[in-house]
Amino acid sequence: AITALPAAISTGKVLQVVTFTSDSEETTTSTSFVGSAKRLSITPSSTSNKILIIYSGASAHNNNSSHCEYTIYRETTSTNLGNSNDGMNQIYNAGGLGYNTLSMTFLDSPSTTSSVEYRVYFRPNASGTTATLGRGTATSVLTLMEIEGWLSKQY
Could you give the C-alpha distances from 102 to 71, 79, 81, 89, 90, in angstroms and in order? Predict the structure, then answer.
């Protein structure tokens, strides 16, 4: 077990935090992932730093025989950070229009010192279904944190 790191190693320190909040509700019937208005940019100070992405908000859909899929893209490289087929999170509905809590967390390695944009995407998995992201009475929050000198070795 590691009990201490050498003083010269700076790792895991939060260097900057940016946050986007929204109380808007967005819908889509497209079965392809659709980019939402929930998007945010950050500029890493080193190529070795990581970006911790945290999203929390409401979601819903209107069909109890299907589900909706949610993911986060690194917009600047058109990269789906979740599974290419299913995204990062799936919400099933037991019947009727129901709202659910949606959360997604991902540690990204953009390997750049240029501005990086992250954006929430969503879709229903079947035609005839409307996917909803956010709700007018609930706040959605997208937060990006730059983490310094992340150690990639696991102990």
Answer: 10, 21, 16, 8, 9
Q: How far apart are CA 34 and CA 38, in angstroms?
A: 11
What band does 129 get if pLDDT is binned at 50, 70 and 90?
Answer: confident
Give this prediction's pTM. Answer: 0.86
Q: Dihedrals φ, ψ of 95, to 5°?
A: 155, 140
Of 20, 70, 60, which is closest to residue 42 (Cα–Cα)? 20
CA distance 116 to 109: 11
Beta bridge mates, 60? 99, 132
- Tell me the CA distances in angstroms from 77 to 4, 18, 89, 122, 143, one per residue in order: 37, 20, 21, 18, 19
The phi, psi pair for 20, rounded to 5°, reads -120, 130
What are 87's two structure tokens?
């995204």
Are 29 and 66 in contact, with CB atoms under 8 Å apart? no
Neighbours of 24 (CB within 10 A): 14
